[in-house]
Design a protein that fits this description.
heterotrimer, A alpha/beta (about 475), B alpha/beta (about 350), C alpha/beta (about 725), A: about 475 residues, alpha/beta, Rossmann fold, 2 domains, seven-stranded mixed beta sheet, 11 strands, about 45% helix, B: about 350 residues, Four Helix Bundle (Hemerythrin (Met), subunit A), three-stranded antiparallel beta sheet, about 10% strand, initiation factor (chain B), guanyl-nucleotide exchange factor activity (chain B), cytoplasm (chain B)
Chain lengths: ~475, ~350, ~725
């Protein structure tokens, strides 16, 4: 113990390790405190930790009622996100998992329908899964809303939204729904559909969210009983989560696969931060092509990692030590690397052919939150008409809408800007150290994710494909 | 397509769609044109004694046209009527979707009747929902406005008004409003004044400025919020005259420009520019110093309309704000990027 | 104990394979530092529950421990135990689910000083392996693993490396450093070993640091550092506790323990090491001054991630806005009030029109009226401030209410529930409370009479007076530091205070140090805390050296010489010299007695040889009026013997001997006998019991004289 407690500060690795042994509730609390203490930070570690935790949560979940499972996950998600609202990725993962559960449930409802025809009307069409409605796919809630702080007119929202996901499909299918709460999120929202053959005799007065809730729960009940016989919801969901974990692992390599399309011979590429994604991306290109990388050191909060990344290709970046596998540094890959201070960006931009940015979070409106300095780089690129490419795994893509961009930006330890020893300075001067920048969509030309390249304006579509509208607001 | 089998001999009932429409509008001040139109159509359906799908669709078609013709600016109205029509087509065809329309007559009539009953019975419900959606949008105001923000808005959009009011009610919010009001006494600007009054009653500092002062005051503004008569496929909006220039200015000043609109205002149009709108407005009428011609011109101009409801005078004129000026469209179900709008429409039309 | 595994075996398993599971990392939290630095607030609440940036102090400490991967936590609480207990039991640290600690234990001890606590701890034998000692007021985001590893590595090599102090580098001037005292560490940078420690008074500018010359010869490199923040984070081994209990006269962990252990390194051979860090944040909220500066640091995010907006407490919802403004949801701001930068406002607080708030920390559910100006103030939960008030850098505790148009000047402290009525001005020196003294267990605390002259008519509360001078020093370290002029006056005060006999001193460990030392020094005479650092240094050194030379049987002349030099260097008072002499002599005597020789011989041997040494300590030989020094000497002797076994006998013989030697004159002896101080406390009375005979003898003798005189007169 002495060894370990000494060597391993609480962090991602220790958390993952402990996850095996400790029960769920403490693990949740543990993760929360780690997030609060910033002992797990940055998108990837957060994502990994969250998925691992949720896998555990689902695993521990008793009973077969999927509605309960959804609630459980959602409630865990709320706690996590409010613990560290700025790590948007946590929320993303939770939403993904929620989506998974619903998918599993609905698939099995389809099975159900084929099996027992009379409930056919209740089966949402599979379109619902693959084409969730778009317009509600951007949350109306600032990512920083703490669960507690949500106005309660919105508290009733999830039920209402929960229709939309299933309602969204072509009109002919509309009435395959027994239930429609008022205010469903389709253009047809005005006209609800109480009168399908199955329920045409019921009075029209019965359309209310609760009736909807009632009905779905009926579905789920049915699902529950027969699932006990046929399929194991939990197992499927957990498989799904494992796939999600694989996605996290692979996303870098998948993105790297596109490198050659974007980086050409003898180009000068400018990038910043010691992002693994970007490094791998560049390396992939370096295998075939010779080009120059201008690396901005992103002083003060990331420059150590950056330096070591350039030198050794290993960012001894605190806690995510183990899982952060070392890669061959660019210089060994035959790439000419030039390191410049942040202040030099604009001057050098005129010679740069392409800017490649790493990111912290991508928001559904095409904007991104990245390490501070990103905006300066992006605007400089804009001024020089230099294309800006953002490399980001889909898991960083968040459905939340940035109402208040200031609140997305975290302010870090002032001590990294000015040493704390400098007593007079500390006393007399205010020091600020924002960790992130908000880069508006119009400064970005292209996003490269593990599923391909997209224009910023197209991101809403990706969001729609990956998140279920009913899960947008945790 | 719907009029595959024309049944001409169907007598037009004494029922006057236009009057109903007006009545409905007047009866409920904060009712949007599309919803009113839908209600009117429902009533039309009630008065008619159609029994087959084809007839129904035809009837709707006819009424819709009358309505559209009757109003100077049918854009937002048509949003409602089209929606309703599409809906009818969709639902009526559903049971026999394979058969196509040829077999529409022998569609199960009970089914048809059921739908009809539902429509007739739940006419009011539509209105409720329309209002509900507005309330929902308004409830976003809390996230929307930041403490100490200054909002620039214009026109008499009820949704915007509702949103601001809601924000004002949450006492922790401190924001100022700059309200663009045209000095004219058009219905629109009257509503504007009303909103201003209410906001001030809520102890929200409001400054009213003429269109000409927008650029001047933009320096103080944190965000621009406008309403819309219609949201077109491209994601652009059709809104009262002056919105376009606000958009341009906001863009040039780098201020976020939000549109607030219920999703039933989405209209299937694809205007390419200001003069591409399917309505005539005499915003630009070039004159030479000859009274006679001008007046006669006016006369002709008036004659174009079935009735003197409201001439498309300068006050009521609209303009088109292209999507690239719009940061986001706030509907009852979330914030859309302009590009998402088309997908919405595609979903109901194809 | 669920959280156990977290930083525990699993990581062991994962890495370093199967080395046997060593004992968990333990930590001792000294929740009560046995000081009155925070009076009057500490009258009603334990200091570690005082809110710092709206979070109780102890939370930060626990965060720090959790951060360091500690598993077992023992909290030593002094005053207000029940409050602390209640708080912890409700906090997330107690619950099995949420606490990162596998064990959380409160220890109530009667100890009046850290020394006692340590010894108590040793007797309990709770601590098996290396453990941390921190105060209940440490604020730090420092990851400890490097320090721990360094410590353990050293342990592997050398069992005698018993302790590692974690010190934060800070410039020569730093707001977060202690002002009244500044520690000087002499470090061998090559081995990170601390060679010498001295607490420098930085009041009078005469800095003296007496270094053992061997240090210079033994070590190629020496660093004498004064630029370190000593945040009281020590990594210790059980030997440390043993050491504590060996020398039961250690009270203060630094001045006492550290200083001495380093001093007689030759004796015990234990080494103490330093781990000096120059990144991350580490500070102790040791007094109001540091309270102020640490608060500022936290708001300015120097202690990141320990910031208000990371919402360490459950249910907090602070959000950061531009310019380090932290607001919780549900803050009600009037339309035209101005919140300036570096401000924290808690939930449910309402701020009126035209109010301007800057650089202040305001708790939850406070009510701030209209047109109030608040700058740099600390206002705790549920306080209310009336319209038109002006509050400067002051602390206004919970439920205190300030009526309209008051003026609270910088430095004022307004304690719980005080009510200041309309239009009053509270000056910077005022410390207003409603509590007379510390709340004992259970009993509701006694209310003092409201003092209208301070809180105005209808107000509630009165000026808080602390009996001991320690507070004079405290004000210097108060919220705002006073000018040097003031300090001088303190010195004056403390100087004259030296000879006064002070018993009510349990709060300040200087005093407890003096008094509760079982054996050597009894707390006759008190000293202002920093003066007493000398005092202590002197006492210790002098006593030690004299004692040694007594054993070696040196010439009293030499002893005298040593003594004076020591006295000069630490400018100790005559009183102290006497005390030193007495203590050492008595020690020697007792030792001799212990080694078999009978009392008379022992006394004769010890005192006899050193007549002039003794006489040199008393200068009122032929002053007709009062024999103050002699009385003092006797008092010391008596007090010292009071605690020894058959001290009375020793006292008798000693007294007789002294009279014989004419070191103490008859009058002196009589005066002492009459002196009230010699009668107070039963052990004092007891010990002087036997001496009665001597006194009788003396008195009648003198009577005879007088008789003779009479006769002479008569004839």
């Amino acid at each position: 113990m002495a060894q370990s407690s000494g060597a391993v500060a609480p962090g991602l690795s220790s958390f993952l390790a402990s996850l095996k042994t400790t029960p769920v509730e403490p693990s949740i609390e543990h993760l929360i405190s780690l997030l609060k203490r910033r002992q797990i930070r940055n998108s990837r570690p957060c994502a990994v930790a969250t998925t691992a935790l949720l896998l555990r949560v689902v695993g521990e979940f008793k009973g077969k009622n999927s509605a309960k499972l959804v609630d459980r996950i959602r409630q865990v998600g709320k706690r996590l996100t409010s613990a560290q609202p700025r790590e948007v990725v946590v929320g993303n993962i939770v939403r993904r998992v929620l989506g998974l559960v619903r998918e599993v449930v609905e698939e099995n409802l389809d099975v159900d329908t084929t099996a027992t025809s009379d409930v056919g009307q209740n089966a949402p069409h599979s379109d619902a899964l693959h084409r969730p409605s778009l317009h509600s796919s951007i949350s109306t809630f600032s990512p920083l809303k703490h669960a507690a702080a949500e106005p309660h007119e919105i508290a009733s929202f999830p039920e209402e939204m929960s229709d939309s996901g299933e309602l969204v499909k072509r009109p002919p299918l509309l009435s395959s729904h027994t239930s429609a709460a008022p205010m469903v999120n389709s253009l047809f929202g005005l006209f609800s559909q109480p009168d399908t053959p199955s329920t045409s005799n019921t009075p029209t007065g019965h359309q209310s969210p609760d009736s909807k809730a009632m009905l779905t729960s009926v579905n789920l009940e049915r699902l529950a009983d027969f699932s006990s016989s046929k399929f194991d919801m939990k197992a499927e969901v957990m498989d799904g989560i494992r796939e999600l974990q694989d996605e996290l692992d692979q996303s870098d390599d998948l993105m790297a696969a596109y490198a050659l399309d974007h980086i050409h011979a003898n180009e000068i590429v400018l990038t910043h931060t010691a992002s693994t994604s970007v490094q791998k991306f560049l390396l992939a290109a370096a295998r075939k092509r010779k080009f120059t990388v201008v690396h901005v050191e992103t002083h003060p909060h990331d420059h150590h990692a950056t330096h070591s990344a350039l030198l050794t290709g290993k960012k001894r970046d605190g806690h995510e030590g183990e899982d952060e596998d070392a890669w061959k540094p660019l210089r060994l890959a035959g790439v000419r690397v030039v390191m410049i201070p942040d202040s030099h960006v604009f001057a050098i931009m005129s010679q740069v052919n392409k800017v490649i940015l790493a990111t912290h979070t991508v928001l559904a409106n095409g904007a991104l939150v990245a390490a501070s300095g990103a905006r300066m780089i992006a605007s400089a690129a804009k001024a020089h008409r230099t294309p800006v490419v953002v490399v980001s795994g889909v898991y960083k893509l968040s459905p939340v809408y940035p109402f208040n961009t200031e609140e997305l930006i975290e302010c870090g330890d002032a001590g990294t800007v000015v040493p704390y020893e400098d007593g007079d300075f500390v006393d007399l001067v205010d020091v600020e150290n924002p960790l992130y920048d908000y880069v508006p969509a119009d400064l970005v030309d292209l996003y490269i994710t593990n599923i391909g390249g997209h224009a910023p304006s197209y991101l809403y579509r990706i969001v729609a494909d990956h998140y279920r509208t009913e899960d947008i607001t945790l | 397509m719907d009029v595959a089998t024309p049944t001409a001999e169907n007598p037009l009932p004494t029922f006057d769609i236009v009057d109903t429409y007006r009545r409905i509008l007047v009866s409920d001040p904060n009712l949007t044109m599309p919803v009113a139109a839908i209600e009117a159509l429902v009533e039309a359906l009630a008065h008619s004694n159609v029994s087959t799908i084809a007839e129904t669709l035809q009837l709707l078609e006819r009424h819709t046209n009358i309505l559209k013709a009757s109003t100077p600016n049918p854009i937002s109205l048509s949003a409602g009527t089209d929606l309703f029509q599409r809906y009818m087509v969709a639902t009526l065809n559903r049971p026999t979707s394979f058969g196509g329309l040829a077999s529409a007559h022998l569609g199960p009539s009970d089914d048809f009747r059921a739908i009809r009953n539902h429509l007739l019975s739940s006419g009011r419900l539509f209105v409720e929902r329309a209002k509900a959606s507005r309330e929902k949008i308004a409830s976003f105001g809390r996230q929307f406005l930041r403490d100490g923000a200054t909002v620039l808005t214009n026109g008499g959009s009820r949704v915007v008004g509702a949103l601001l009011k809601r924000a004002a009610e949450s006492s922790s919010m401190r924001f100022k409003v700059i309200y663009v009001l045209s000095p004219s006494a058009s219905s629109d600007s009257l509503e504007g004044q009303q909103t201003v009054a209410e906001l001030r009653a809520h102890n929200v500092p409001v400054a009213t400025i003429p269109d000409s002062a927008v650029a001047y005051s933009l320096g103080q503004v944190d965000m621009v919020i406008v309403g819309a008569e219609g949201v077109v496929e491209s994601g652009g909006i059709i809104s009262r005259l002056g919105t376009y220039q606000m958009g341009l200015l906001a863009k040039s000043k780098g201020k976020p420009f939000y549109v607030v609109a219920e999703s039933h205002k989405f209209v299937r149009l694809y205007p390419l520019g200001q003069f591409d709108l399917p309505i005539e407005q005499n915003v630009l009428d070039f004159k030479v110093g000859d009274e006679g011609r001008v007046t006669s011109d006016e006369g002709i101009f008036d004659m174009n309309f079935a009735s003197k409801c409201s001439g498309m005078t300068l006050e009521d004129a609209v303009d088109f704000t292209p999507p690239d000026l719009i940061s986001g469209i706030i509907t009852e179900s979330g914030v859309l990027t302009p590009s998402a709008v088309s997908e919405e429409l595609i979903k109901i039309w194809f | 104990m669920p959280p156990k595994g977290k930083k525990g075996q699993p990581t062991d398993k994962s890495k370093a394979g199967e080395e046997e599971r060593e004992e968990p990392l333990q930590a001792v939290v000294l929740a009560d530092a046995f000081e009155t630095r925070f009076s009057p607030f500490t009258l009603e609440r334990p200091r570690c529950l005082l809110p710092l940036a709206n979070i109780p102090l102890i939370e930060y400490t626990f965060e720090f421990l959790a951060n360091a991967g500690v598993e077992d936590v023992y909290v030593y609480c002094g005053a207000h135990r029940e409050q602390l207990e209640e708080y912890i039991s409700q906090s997330k640290w107690a619950s099995q689910v949420s606490s990162p600690f596998s064990k959380m234990e409160l220890i109530q001890s009667t100890s009046h000083s850290i020394g006692d606590a340590m010894r108590d701890l040793d007797t309990r034998a709770l601590l098996v392996g290396d453990f941390l000692i921190v105060y209940g007021d440490v604020v730090s985001n420092l990851p400890l693993e490097s320090a721990l590893n360094a410590h353990r590595a050293r342990r592997q090599k050398d069992k005698n490396a018993i302790m590692t102090m974690v010190l934060r580098e800070a410039g020569t001037r730093h707001r977060t450093k202690a002002q009244s005292t500044n520690p000087v560490f002499v470090v061998d940078p090559t081995k990170d070993r601390c060679l010498h420690f001295e607490q420098m008074p930085n009041k009078e500018q005469t800095h003296f640091l007496s270094l053992d010359p061997t240090l210079l010869s033994d070590h190629q490199e020496l660093e004498i550092r004064q630029d370190l923040i000593d945040c009281g984070i020590d990594i210790c081994t059980p030997d440390v506790l043993a050491l504590w209990s060996d020398n039961f006269d250690f009270q203060a962990p630094r001045k006492g323990f550290l200083h001495s252990v380093l001093k007689d390194y030759e004796l015990n051979g234990k080494t103490i090491h330093t781990h000096i860090v120059n990144d991350h944040y580490a500070a102790r909220v040791r007094n109001l001054h540091t309270y102020d500066s640490v608060s500022q640091d936290i708001v300015a995010r120097w202690a990141y991630p320990l910031c208000p907006d990371s919402n360490l407490l459950r249910g907090q919802s602070f959000r950061l806005q531009k310019g380090n403004i932290y607001k919780e949801d549900g803050v009600v701001l009037a339309r035209d009030c101005i919140i300036r930068s570096k401000t924290v406002i808690g939930r449910g607080t309402s701020v009126g029109d035209g109010t301007v708030i800057s650089n202040s920390i305001i708790g939850r559910h406070c009510h701030i009226g209209r047109d109030v100006t608040i700058d740099g103030a600390y206002i705790w939960d549920h306080a209310s401030i009336g319209d038109g008030c002006k509050v400067e850098k002051a602390i206004i505790a919970s439920e205190a209410s300030i009526s309209r148009r008051c003026r609270i000047e910088a430095g004022a402290l307004i304690s719980y529930g005080v009510h200041v009525s309309e239009g009053q001005t509270i000056s910077g020196e005022n410390r207003i409370t409603r509590a007379k003294r510390k709340r004992e267990h259970g009993e509701d605390l006694p209310r003092g009479e409201p003092d209208p002259s301070i809180v105005g008519k209808g107000g509630d509360g009165f000026e808080y007076y602390d009996s001991n001078e320690e507070d004079e020093d405290e004000i210097v370290d108060g919220l705002i530091s006073r000018g040097p002029l003031y300090n001088l006056s303190n010195l004056a005060l403390s100087a004259e205070s030296i000879s006064t006999l002070n018993s009510e001193s349990e709060d300040d460990y200087e005093f407890s140090h003096q008094r509760s030392e079982a054996g050597s020094f009894v707390s006759v005479g008190s000293v202002d805390s920093h003066a007493s650092q000398h005092a202590h240094n002197f006492d210790h050194d002098a006593a030690a050296s004299i004692y040694d030379s007594l054993i070696e049987g040196h010439e009293s002349a030499n002893i005298q010489l040593e003594l004076t030099s020591l006295r000069m260097s630490t400018n100790a008072s005559e009183h102290q010299v006497r005390r030193a002499v007495v203590v050492s002599f008595v020690k020697r005597i007792i030792q001799l007695i212990g080694s078999g020789s009978n009392v008379r011989d022992a006394v004769a041997q010890v005192f006899g040889q050193h007549k002039d040494l003794l006489t040199r300590t008393m200068f009122d030989k032929n002053s007709a009026s009062g024999k103050v020094d002699q009385v003092d000497f006797m008092l010391l002797l008596q007090a010292d013997l009071a605690s020894r076994e058959n001290g009375d006998l020793v006292l008798l013989t000693a007294a007789t001997k002294l009279v014989e030697m004419d070191v103490i004159e008859d009058d002196g002896m009589m005066e002492w006998w009459e002196n009230p101080k010699s009668k107070e406390g039963d052990d004092m009375v007891k010990v002087r019991g036997k001496t009665q005979q001597l006194i009788d003898f003396l008195s009648q003798e003198s009577e005879e004289e007088s008789d003779e005189d009479d006769e002479e007169d008569s004839d």
